[in-house]
Structure formats: structure tokens, C-alpha cells
């Protein structure tokens, strides 16, 4: 396959997740022996992108789960790609597993040993997308790089029109 | 490539109480060894306390190892608890719904 022309970066931002080299800040192949190293590279990349605190830790853990999932169920190897597209950090994990047993995104009972990886990735980011390709799975999570308001975790559409929260349940 | 281990442990036993102090980052690369360590401990002691105050990272494979150890402890009558999880570790345990299973009542603030 031909390499994407780096000059393409100057073109309009492509917002689809798989978009060649546009905005690419990390491209890291991994296997079972390099899960930890890939996470450390990702953590550095995430920090350089300006994410800190729980937001950074959450996306690093989420992607760690996707990488681990690729190693254990996705053919044993994969590629981690991280892009910055405007103010969004897009992390994609591309593997070559067919997943005959499906892609469960659910929380296991407390006495069930496994099955929490994809759920963690989903819960920590709220943006997990799993795409089945003919030759594998692409898992992606995204996180906004805009600074969070100091006290709000969910942006309000229009605070001025919103009534004061009731003191008790009505 | 043979990277340095990202974690280590210290184990001490006082009577039938075994304490395991874990340090570092726990992930897929450590999961099997961690599970063997914990399962062996709950098979030979009545009380196993795993101090995770110096653990900076855990993931789903760590939780799998903890659940397997806890399940084994339930069959052998061993009391298996995690002690002193830092805020980040507590968050991961909480998000996965296992925090109260692994932390003894009164050990958390």
C-alpha cells in the first residue's frame, strides 16, 4: 500500500476515525510483550496533547484495555494509532482477530474472573466504538482536549434558561 | 527485548496471616504471576492482606487475578482483602463494581 502523502495533512480535516496520517501523533505496533511499553508511549502522547488528571488516566486505561483485548482475543498483535483532530484525541486499536465469541461490552458479576475490559473502555470514555472489518476489529475511543469547566462534568446546553435544581425530589 | 519488570512484591507471614505488599504497575504482563502469587497465598493462610498503596496502575487483567484469588479464598475459608488503595486504584475497583468485595469494612475512608 502506498504511504499517505504527508502534504495531505494541510487539506481539510477528515473526521472519520480511520483517516490516514492526518493528525497522527502516535503509531505503535504491539504484541503481548509490549503491552506495557505501548501504554507508556500512549501516556506520554496523551500528556503532550494536554490531558491531565483523571481524563488522562481514564483514556490510558481504556486504551490499555483495547490493546490487551487485541492481544488476548484479536490475533495477538495489533497497531495503536493516536490522532489529534482539532480538539479531539482519537485512539484506535486495530487487530486481526475474528472474535467468533463476540465482543461483549458488559460488567461481569463480582465473582466472574474476566470480561471487564471492553466495559471499562466504554465506561471510562463513553465513546467506545467497535468496528468489525473482514480481517479483524478496530476499536476506538475519543476524548475531548478542551479544558473542563472547574465544577461541571456534563456541559449544560443553556444554564440561563434552566430552573434552579429542586432542593428535594418532587 | 526484555524490559524490566514493572512490579514487585514482598510477602511476610505472621502466624496464619500473610501480608503481600505490591509495588508498581499491574497489567497483562504481570497478571499470571500475580494470580499464582495470590492464589498460593490464600491456599496456605487464613488471612491474606494485599497492600496496594504503592500500586500505580491496575487493569481488567489485575481484577481477574484478584477475583480468582478471592474465589479461591472463599472455598478455603481464607479472608482475602485489599488494603490502602490509592484514589486511582479505588476508582478502577469502583467502576468495575468490585471495590466493596475486596476492601474490608472500615478499611476505606
From TrEMBL, chain A:
<feature type="region of interest" description="Disordered">
    <location>
        <begin position="149"/>
        <end position="170"/>
    </location>
</feature>
<dbReference type="InterPro" id="IPR050267">
    <property type="entry name" value="Anti-sigma-factor_SerPK"/>
</dbReference>
<keyword id="KW-0547">Nucleotide-binding</keyword>
<keyword id="KW-0723">Serine/threonine-protein kinase</keyword>
<dbReference type="GO" id="GO:0004673">
    <property type="term" value="F:protein histidine kinase activity"/>
</dbReference>
<dbReference type="InterPro" id="IPR036890">
    <property type="entry name" value="HATPase_C_sf"/>
</dbReference>
<feature type="domain" description="Histidine kinase/HSP90-like ATPase">
    <location>
        <begin position="30"/>
        <end position="139"/>
    </location>
</feature>
<keyword id="KW-0418">Kinase</keyword>
<dbReference type="Pfam" id="PF13581">
    <property type="entry name" value="HATPase_c_2"/>
</dbReference>
<keyword id="KW-0067">ATP-binding</keyword>
<keyword id="KW-0808">Transferase</keyword>
<dbReference type="InterPro" id="IPR003594">
    <property type="entry name" value="HATPase_dom"/>
</dbReference>
<dbReference type="GO" id="GO:0005524">
    <property type="term" value="F:ATP binding"/>
</dbReference>
<protein>
    <submittedName>
        <fullName>ATP-binding protein</fullName>
        <ecNumber>2.7.13.3</ecNumber>
    </submittedName>
</protein>
TrEMBL record, chain B:
<comment type="similarity">
    <text>Belongs to the anti-sigma-factor antagonist family.</text>
</comment>
<feature type="domain" description="STAS">
    <location>
        <begin position="20"/>
        <end position="109"/>
    </location>
</feature>
<dbReference type="InterPro" id="IPR058548">
    <property type="entry name" value="MlaB-like_STAS"/>
</dbReference>
<dbReference type="InterPro" id="IPR003658">
    <property type="entry name" value="Anti-sigma_ant"/>
</dbReference>
<protein>
    <recommendedName>
        <fullName>Anti-sigma factor antagonist</fullName>
    </recommendedName>
</protein>
<dbReference type="Pfam" id="PF13466">
    <property type="entry name" value="STAS_2"/>
</dbReference>
<dbReference type="InterPro" id="IPR036513">
    <property type="entry name" value="STAS_dom_sf"/>
</dbReference>
<dbReference type="InterPro" id="IPR002645">
    <property type="entry name" value="STAS_dom"/>
</dbReference>
Amino acid at each position: 500500500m502506498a504511504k499517505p502523502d504527508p502534504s495531505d495533512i494541510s487539506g481539510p480535516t477528515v473526521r472519520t476515525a480511520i483517516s490516514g496520517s492526518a493528525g497522527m501523533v502516535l503509531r505503535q505496533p504491539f504484541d503481548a510483550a509490549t503491552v506495557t511499553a505501548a501504554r507508556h508511549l500512549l501516556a506520554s502522547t496523551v500528556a503532550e496533547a494536554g490531558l491531565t488528571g483523571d481524563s488522562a488516566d481514564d483514556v490510558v486505561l481504556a486504551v490499555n484495555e483495547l490493546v490487551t483485548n487485541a492481544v488476548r482475543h484479536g490475533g495477538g498483535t495489533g497497531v495503536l494509532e493516536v490522532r489529534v483532530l482539532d480538539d479531539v484525541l482519537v485512539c484506535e486499536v486495530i487487530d486481526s482477530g475474528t472474535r467468533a465469541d463476540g465482543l461483549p461490552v458488559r460488567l461481569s458479576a463480582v465473582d466472574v474472573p474476566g470480561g471487564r475490559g471492553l466495559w471499562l473502555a466504554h465506561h471510562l470514555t463513553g465513546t467506545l466504538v467497535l468496528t468489525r472489518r473482514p480481517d479483524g476489529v478496530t476499536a476506538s475511543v475519543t476524548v475531548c482536549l478542551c479544558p473542563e469547566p472547574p465544577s461541571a462534568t456534563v456541559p449544560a446546553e443553556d444554564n440561563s434558561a434552566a430552573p434552579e435544581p429542586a432542593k428535594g425530589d418532587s | 527485548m526484555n524490559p524490566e519488570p514493572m512490579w514487585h512484591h514482598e510477602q511476610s507471614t505472621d502466624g496464619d496471616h500473610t501480608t503481600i505488599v505490591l509495588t508498581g504497575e499491574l497489567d497483562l504482563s504481570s497478571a499470571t504471576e500475580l494470580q499464582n502469587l495470590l492464589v498460593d497465598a490464600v491456599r496456605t493462610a487464613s488471612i491474606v492482606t494485599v497492600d496496594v498503596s504503592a500500586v500505580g496502575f491496575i487493569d481488567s487483567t489485575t481484577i481477574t487475578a484478584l477475583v480468582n484469588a478471592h474465589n479461591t479464598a472463599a472455598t478455603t475459608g481464607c479472608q482475602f482483602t485489599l488494603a490502602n488503595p490509592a484514589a486511582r486504584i479505588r476508582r478502577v475497583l469502583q467502576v468495575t463494581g468490585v471495590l466493596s468485595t475486596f476492601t474490608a469494612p472500615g478499611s476505606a475512608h
